[in-house]
Amino acid sequence: MAEPALNGWLRMPAMYMTRFPACRGNGFLFVPLLAAWVGVATLHTPACAQDMPAATPQNAPASPLAPRGAWTPYGQGTATPAAPKPGPKPDPAPQSHAASAPQSRSAAQAALLAMLADQLAHAKTPQDAHTIEDKLEALRTQHLSPTTRLLMHRAESDLAAQKPDDAVEDMGDALALQPDQAVLWRGRGQMRFVAGNLYGAVTDLGQALARDPLDAQSWSLLSSVEERRNDGAAALQAWQKALGLNPMLDPTHKRLDQLKIKAFGQPT
């Protein structure tokens, strides 16, 4: 509180001189007094004013509307600190590669299946056709799980033991595990055919051919089922499909001629 008293003491000569009319017209008398007052006031500037740092984003006064901990042009707020920024997202490349692996494997299998089917359609001898058929069957059963294979073997054992109903049940369990495998639908269709369930056999073989239309064995089995159902036209059509995929099934066309007679009657 010493500064206001000093300022008042410095103003006293000016106030004293302005009380007299002779001194009021002499304005030049105020020049040295004003200079002395400014100099003394500068020397006695409060220490707190000299030491006060410049306003920066770090020490500026806080805004009453700013959240605590958030930076504003007026400094730190008074609300809770802001949540940290989320870290970088993981690279989705491994997931995309993992998802595309089964698709690539299926595409490669389909290409190999088509190549072997073309070779079978141009086989010159029954021995060559049999060798290619073995390769095709190994390719079709390549992705069966161990449990599914066990159920298939048990179904074959049941069929050999004259238990076709048990064989159908075993193949049904295998289909429940891998319903996308056409070879399993063909297998259950065969078991149903032996068990006398002709309608169920046609249904299963239709499912198999919808998934694998290049399977000559499915077409041949379907022809036999349709013949048992006394549908000569359907049996002939299925057999022609089978011969188109594997001509060595009937190289002499003996069965083909028999099915034509059943479908259209004896030629005159």
Automatic annotation (TrEMBL):
Signal peptide: none annotated. Residues 94-104 have a biased composition (Low complexity). Keywords: TPR repeat. SUPFAM superfamilies: TPR-like (SSF48452). Residues 83-93 have a biased composition (Pro residues). InterPro entries: TPR-like_helical_dom_sf (IPR011990), TPR_rpt (IPR019734). This is Tetratricopeptide repeat protein.
